[in-house]
Amino acid sequence: MEMSLSEEALNIYTVYCQKGFAKSIYIKSQMAKCYDNLREGRECKQTFEYIRKLDPYNLDFMDIYSNVLFVLEEHVQLAILAQEACEIDKYKPESCCIIGNYYSLQNEHYKAVNYFKRALKLNPNYLQAWTLMGHEYMELKNSTSAIQSYTNAIDLNPKDYRAWYGLGQTYEILKLYSYSLYYYKQAYLLRPNDSRFIVAMGDVYAKLEKWDEAKRCFIKAYTVGDYEGSSLCKLAKVYEKLNEPINVAIAYDQFSEDQKILKSNSTLLTQELSQAYKYLANFYLKKMKLDNAYDAATKCLEFAETRQEAQSILSQIAQSRNALREQEQSAAGSSTNVDMEIGSNPVQNDDLASNNQMNQINRHVLSPSLIALDNSDNPNINDTNTSLNLTSNQHMSTEPVNQATSSSSEVPTNSNSTQIQQDSDSESEHFFSNFNIKKRPLN
After folding, report:
1. E strands of 313-410, at which residues?
2. How many helices, marked H, and strands, marked E, lie in the chain?
């Protein structure tokens, strides 16, 4: 637990439970803490409920249980827990912390601060109260008090990643990005597989206009398992700044596929998803991939903010299809006239056959990549099956992201991403080429 190896600790405690300690409150509490560190809220909640059935009057580690209920937004259960804790022992620091979390969930931040202060009067070394009080001061826009609270928490325990992360957020709000980046790095060093800290560093790099560092952070966040699901859309915006439209399309396409699986209800992700479909519709339209453009534009109709633009894109798609249909009809009519003229003139027919043979010989001399580029200019010719295996940029040298290495196996992408890659030239860089995606499922 002290080494932040929660999965290994959880396996050891599971073995203890199998050996006859299944009803040990201490072991079950430690397992709940492991689940909390792994951000598996549902399992953590179930473990604490089992502990309360074993000993309803035990308040040890119940402050962690209140944090879990706060994150899960379980208003009713947190209210019940706060009432029972007050009835059992209202002068216990854990009880004050539980009540403070309850008022915080009700957006009564002043009352929450008062109860956290009461907990600190009972126990000045109560680490949980210092960190939570810093969060409340941030909600109240009191940056000075928030910094002081987080600093006190770090003085008590330098391994408290929540306090480091809180300091980073506070300085980012104050637009002191260099300080913010330092504190985010400290939190990252304590938990290198937590995507929140990597995404936060990427945001700061983007605000500093360090696009290459921001890009690597967002890629790293996705490879370790993006918990909030926002790394790909932020990566796409970075690629827009770098003027790499193909990689923007790949990022947005993968983001849309992930959202189909996760089905997130976040308002922010819903807005990002609408922008992703709008970009893909315009991108496919420029590439004359009319079927894919139609699918993306149809998805845009599901969002109010992109509905009007989607209707305009659909009308452009209809016009492009009509123009292609007219070209095919005119080409078919001209080819019929040419066949009739060739049949009436045998000399021209022989010359045309010899020219076709020369063209075939010259085409065999060309390299496959040039033939693919030659075919890509004609929308009526099917895309080749040639895939471009391109490596990603070299790793960050001075940033902490390098400390967690990723494997070099290819990441599977969907068919739309494959089509985008087939349309790209050899100088474009595909960021999915050498990363192994291990996304943690949301419970």
Report:
1. none
2. 21, 0
